[in-house]
Amino acid sequence: MSHTVKKTLKSDRPGSELQGSIVTKEMVMRAIETRVGSEEFYELEPLEVLEVFVDDTAENFPLTSEGEKDYSYTGGVLGRFIYSEQNKSKPECKWFKPINPNINMTPVRGEIVIGMEYLGQWYYTHTLNCFGSPNSNIRKNLSSYRNPPNDDEPGEYFIKSGDKYPNLGYTRRLRPKEGELLIEGRFNNSIRLGSNQIEETTFEESPNIVISVGHLINGDSDNSQKYDKQKEEPYNDGTREKPIYEDIDKDGSSIYLTTNEELKFTPAVESEIDGAFGPFDGKNILLDSDRIIFNTKNNGSVAMMSSHNIALSAVNEVVIETPASKLGSVDAEEPQVLGQTLFDKLDFLITQLGLVAAIPTPTGPSGPLSSSPNWTAVTTAMADIKSALSTKHLIDS
Q1: How many whole angstroms separate alpha carbon 328 and alpha carbon 346?
Q2: Alpha helices per DSSP H over 12-104
Q3: In 3D, which of 134, 130, 94 has the Cα closest to residue 115?
Q4: What confidence tens digit (pLDDT) does each residue in 52-77 have?
Q5: Any alpha helices (H) in the chain, and if so which ranges?
Q6: Are 186 and 138 in contact (CB under 8 A)?
Q7: Residue 8 pLDDT grade (very low, low, confident, very high; cuts 50, 70, 90)
Q8: CA nearest neighbour of 75 among 91, 85, 61, 87
Q9: 48 and which of 143, 213, 312, 390 could share a cystine (Cβ 3.0–4.6 Å)?
Q10: Contact residues for 209 (Cβ-Cβ < 8 A; gap 6+)
């Protein structure tokens, strides 16, 4: 049934004037009236969600008294109280705003929330955890038992995870640790505000934040990694599905902020640069996904500073596309050498020298340079220059 919350408006206890005096009928009646007027009762009752207003394209989007669309109801619902409005027709049902203007879990059709009235306005809060599923907790027709169950979808485009659409997978709850704050979305996404205090002997501060999307979308956790197998046979409503932990390698995309723990993941490249190889313990920020993009606009910049080393490693190529570059400092002035160009020009120079027929000397013209006994050493030196050119690390002219 519905619940009530009692709020006392006066600090003086009603009826205190009767103490130590002769009681008359008028005094008793006045005490009763004072008692009744000193309290307000706020009804809290389960509310079945009939419609959800996520944008103003809904046919029955709430309107102001002037007939304009009332955007304060964005994220609001049309609902019917389960007990006090049983079988009430949909056109007679009320609109409800989300009670918190900053944080709101938008329900879907058929879910049960808590409805209430404050200051002449109707609000809703808290989706009831009917099945323990973060994806959906739909229980249709609780507010209209006499009517046959309807076939309305939970939303215009919202799709409940389950057997009907197996490609969506199943949304699983996260396994909590003591004292943590978990924020879980409907779509295998979450924020964990927690700590690495997981054993009795762990007394050091170790706060962490884990942001994860696509829980185990890349497969199950491997027994040789941090966790045992986590995926089990899924069950329709989620009431018997085992909660899971995030897994860096198996989740879709992750951000880890740690202070006093070891991050366990598989690096794409085993770097040999100090600071770029494991163990990855202590304070770390890890971004992990199939692609990581840094982008600026409005003439902004990207700055990367390190108190130790910066490692750039790739399985295939590292390509830096820029019209100009400097190495060492912003004051660098020495031009970089284009290896093939330098070789070709030296080769041309040596060839032209070898074509010289004779060089004037005080004793008469000498023979061609190519006939010199030392000319072989020159051609050998040119071959050595050729072998010094890299075939893997290239630069534009």
Answers
A1: 28
A2: 25-37
A3: 94
A4: 998 888 778 888 888 888 888 999 99
A5: 25-37, 339-354, 375-387
A6: no
A7: very low
A8: 61
A9: 143
A10: 191, 192, 193, 194, 255, 256, 257
Residue in the block written with tokens 């690390």: 393
Nearest residue to 244 via CA among 202, 214, 201, 281: 214
Retrieve residue 51's tokens.
């419609």
Q: Which tokens is 308 given?
A: 């130790």
Q: Compute the distance between CA of residue 209 and CA of residue 216 in angstroms, rounded to an integer.
A: 18
Q: Is the pLDDT of residue 40 over 60?
A: no
Cα separations (Å) of 183 from 74, 105, 133?
Answer: 22, 10, 13
CA distance 169 to 187: 10
The helix/strand/coil state of 29 is: helix
For the chain, the structural domain boundaries read 3-127, 166-318, 325-397
pLDDT, tens digit, for every residue of 320-364?
888 888 888 888 887 788 888 888 888 887 777 776 656 666 666
When comparing pLDDT for 9 and 266, which is higher?
266
